[in-house]
C-alpha cells in the first residue's frame, strides 16, 4: 500500500472541515435562509457543488428517518434531489461580463434551480442591497480563496446584520 501524500491529506482535511462547516450552518439556518454568492467563477462553482452535496446528504438523511425500517427496498421513497429546492443566490455583476461566463451561469441556474438575483457591484453595496431585498436570507455564503485579495483576512463565518 502506498503512502498518502501530504497534499492529498490536506485536501481531504479541507473538504471534511468544509462539509462540517456547512452542516453547522444548516443547523442554525434552514436552507431556505441561506444564499450563495455565485458569479460563475471557480471558487463560487466549488462552493455551489459542495453546498448541493451537503444539502442532498441532509435531505437524504431526513427522508430516511421517516421511512419505517421494515419497509421493503422497492417501496422506500428516494429523497428529493436538492435541484427541486430553489437555491437563493446573488450574482454581483461586472460592467463588462464575459459571454462565456454568462452562459455558464445560465446553465448552472437551470442545473441547480438557482433563484439568482443579479445586482451590479461593488460587492459590499450589492450584498447590502440583496440583504435589503431578501429579508428571509440569514446567511450569504461567498467562495473566496485564502490567497485572493482580502481572502486571507476573512474567517470561515462572518456575521452580518439585516
From TrEMBL:
Pathway(s) it belongs to: Cofactor biosynthesis; FAD biosynthesis; FAD from FMN: step 1/1
Alphabetically sorted, this entry's keywords are: ATP-binding, FAD, Flavoprotein, FMN, Membrane, Nucleotide-binding, Nucleotidyltransferase, Transferase, Transmembrane, Transmembrane helix
- A biological-process GO annotation: FAD biosynthetic process
Bilayer-crossing residues are 12-29
- E.C. code: 2.7.7.2
Which SUPFAM superfamilies did the record assign?
Answer: Adenine nucleotide alpha hydrolases-like
- Give the highest taxon in the source lineage: Eukaryota
Q: Which reaction does it catalyse?
A: FMN + ATP + H(+) = FAD + diphosphate
**Where is region (Disordered) located?**
62-83
Q: What class of enzyme is it?
A: transferase
Residue ranges of domain Phosphoadenosine phosphosulphate reductase in the record: 34-133
Among the GO molecular function terms of this UniProt record, one is: FMN adenylyltransferase activity
Q: Which Pfam families match?
A: PAPS_reduct
Protein's UniProt name? FAD synthase
Amino acid at each position: 500500500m502506498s503512502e498518502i501524500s501530504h497534499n492529498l491529506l490536506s485536501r481531504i482535511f479541507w473538504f471534511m472541515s468544509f462539509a462540517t462547516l456547512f452542516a453547522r450552518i444548516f443547523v442554525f439556518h434552514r436552507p431556505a435562509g441561506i444564499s450563495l454568492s455565485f458569479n460563475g467563477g471557480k471558487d463560487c462553482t466549488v462552493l455551489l457543488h459542495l453546498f448541493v452535496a451537503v444539502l442532498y446528504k441532509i435531505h437524504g438523511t431526513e427522508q430516511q428517518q421517516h421511512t419505517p425500517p421494515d419497509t421493503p427496498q422497492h417501496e422506500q421513497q428516494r429523497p428529493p434531489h436538492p435541484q427541486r429546492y430553489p437555491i437563493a443566490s446573488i450574482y454581483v455583476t461586472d460592467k463588462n461580463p464575459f459571454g462565456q461566463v454568462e452562459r455558464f451561469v445560465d446553465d448552472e441556474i437551470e442545473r441547480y434551480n438557482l433563484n439568482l438575483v443579479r445586482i451590479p457591484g461593488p460587492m459590499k453595496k450589492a450584498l447590502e442591497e440583496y440583504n435589503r431585498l431578501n429579508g428571509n436570507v440569514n446567511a450569504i455564503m461567498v467562495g473566496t480563496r485564502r490567497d485572493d485579495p482580502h481572502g486571507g483576512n476573512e474567517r470561515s463565518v462572518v456575521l452580518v446584520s439585516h
